[in-house]
Amino acid sequence: MKRNNNINNEIIFQTQSCIIHIPGTPPKYGLIKKVSDSFEQIFGYKKDEVVNQMSINQIMPTLFADKHDEYIKLFLTEEKKNKVLY
Question: How far apart are CA 86 and CA 42, in angstroms?
Fold first, then answer.
């Protein structure tokens, strides 16, 4: 099962779409843990500059960044019917 998860994970992160993985656990709610191959091209940062170094809040518009940690906490504590997605 773990092997299948690793294969699926690699397929997902090699897509042309930009995918950013952040944990949903405190205290580092928005710390960037992994990015897809297209991340560098879209955002202009090298992977090693951001993975385990930057918060997702640092690369999103201030409008969202200012409340993003609160959104994550809400997402993790509310029932599915009340999820905040944007």
Answer: 19
* CATH number assigned to the domain comprising residue 14: 3.30.450.20
Strand partners of residue 20: 35
Query: Among positive and negative, which fits the CA dihedral 35, 22, 71, 66?
Result: negative
Instruction: Please state the pTM of the whole predicted model.
Output: 0.70
Q: Into how many domains does the chain fold?
A: 1
DSSP string, 27-41: T-TTB--EE-TTHHH
The tokens for 27 are: 């205290």
pLDDT tens per residue across all 86 residues of the chain: 455 556 556 666 666 788 898 887 777 778 999 998 889 999 999 999 999 999 999 999 999 899 888 888 887 776 655 554 54
Structural domain harbouring 61: 2-82
